[in-house]
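Reminder: ligand-aware prediction takes two inputs, not one.
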Amino acid sequence: MTAPRLTVDHLTRSFGGRDVVKDVCFSIAPGQVSCLLGPSGCGKSTTLRMIAGVDRPDQGRIRIDGTEVFGPSGDSPPESRGIGLMFQDFALFPHLSVFDNIAFGLGSDRSGRKRREQRVHDLLDRINLGGFGGKFPHQLSGGEQQRVALARALAPRPRIMLMDEPFSGLDNRLRDGIRDTTLDVLKEEGAAVLLVTHEPEEAMRMADEILLMRAGQIVQRGAPYNIYNAPIDAEAAAFFSDINVIKGVSVGALTQTAFGSFLTPGHPDQTQIDIVIRPQHLRIDFDRAGRGPNPTLGDGTAARGIVQRSRFLGHESLVDFRLEADGTPLFATVPGVFLPKAGTALWLMIRRDRCYVFPAKT
Ligand SMILES: Nc1ncnc2c1ncn2[C@@H]1O[C@H](COP(=O)(O)OP(=O)(O)OP(=O)(O)O)[C@@H](O)[C@H]1O
Ligand SMILES: [Mg+2]
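Here is what comes back for the chain with adenosine-5'-triphosphate:
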């Protein structure tokens, strides 16, 4: 395995006696993109600022290519850490041309002039703005400015790129393309990237590894696929999509619900259990004169739901139900167009391999 470019150990920072970042540990290899993902106020930007060197940790250690930049044996100033920064309000220098904006961090000694020009033209090509070097920021669209800011941050070949919600100022149409361009350029440059975002779609799209943060701590980490498919609790599941929660009480290794029994081993009798299922994993079946499909091992027992409303969302339809048995609200998404009328009775089933079992949080 490649040696990590950035290593953060037990990073802690408190403001007014409250731990805003607590015991955060992770490392990022060259060419790897890690996303700090979490709700507003969970400590993402604070973590980033400490790595950049503009805020001082209360405890912990930060190493770049094995060399301590913060810790018991040192505290290097931001400019010597070899870190590139990109924020939402990236502000290009308005009086400098695109070329000069990108060349800004490259020094101005005479001998390096050719190399500097080459580097800027190279980056302009890579962000698909070849020939834009002579323009000024006010002559560019928001997306073009964003790409120039990226090139400016990359020009000095930072070993590490720290990005704090860099795409949140862009409209949706532009954003996906710019994300992909950014990702391509960053990978080519071999920088270790830490991207801060509160949007799960952005993290899933960009990250090799997601670091899920909550109240100052990293609560789960892993590849997007693993984080999405094996959430550690209902809250982690709910961060990535709407969820349905079916409540029950464990007895032995089982929990009985309107959908039949679920295997819920490892909990003491009478534990309140939440069975969590994403809306795309509820199976809908038609009502056959009051009867539903037969129970199966994989899908359990069907329970009757009454449609509350249904909406078309473009690539899928969202149907709200209430369970006839106990009024539990449930949401199901169905690919394409499926818009049953309010009041319609349909049967719902839950795939046992798609549900998550958690003890209920009190
Ligand atoms: N200099 C400071 N003094 C006091 N409190 C601070 C300071 N900086 C941050 N905080 C507090 O620390 C917490 C975490 O802030 P931080 O900016 O890291 O959150 P965040 O995860 O980046 O949120 P967002 O997604 O909204 O940007 C917040 O409650 C914030 O009010
Ligand atoms: Mg922030």
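The chain has eight helices and 21 strands. The chain has two domains: 6-237, 241-359. We will return to this case in the review session.
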